[in-house]
Description:
Elements lengths: L1 H12 L10 H29 L6 H32 L15 H10 L9 H4 L2
Helix pairs in contact: 1-2, 2-3
Amino acid sequence: MGSYWAIFTEGMALSFEFSGRMKRRNYWLFVVMLHLLMVGLVILYAPLEQLFGPISERALLAAFLNSTSLAIGMWWAIAIIAASARRLRDAGRSPYCLLYNFVPIANLYLLYLLSEPSKAHFTSHKETTP
């Protein structure tokens, strides 16, 4: 479990890093851990209504929970987009392939691209100069 958590924390630390590469195993473990954490937070949200009553009746608590969940959701969305861009680059594809996500059937092709094995890394002149 320690290595899984290390992969997740590394992915979250690189939330706003769209350059670089991410191996296939690390990408899918990051995605699974992120979704498990989301499910866990949703499960924790239900007892709050039992504890405090209907959230809609408590305006301050509702505003806090809504704004917090919006901020966390935006952070996680950016983290998964950045991880997907790094994964596509590692598979030898352009990060612009993420735009396939907005085309109805082409998003299945994006899933295939994210599942491709890593390609050999060729160092360009830009990457070797200091």
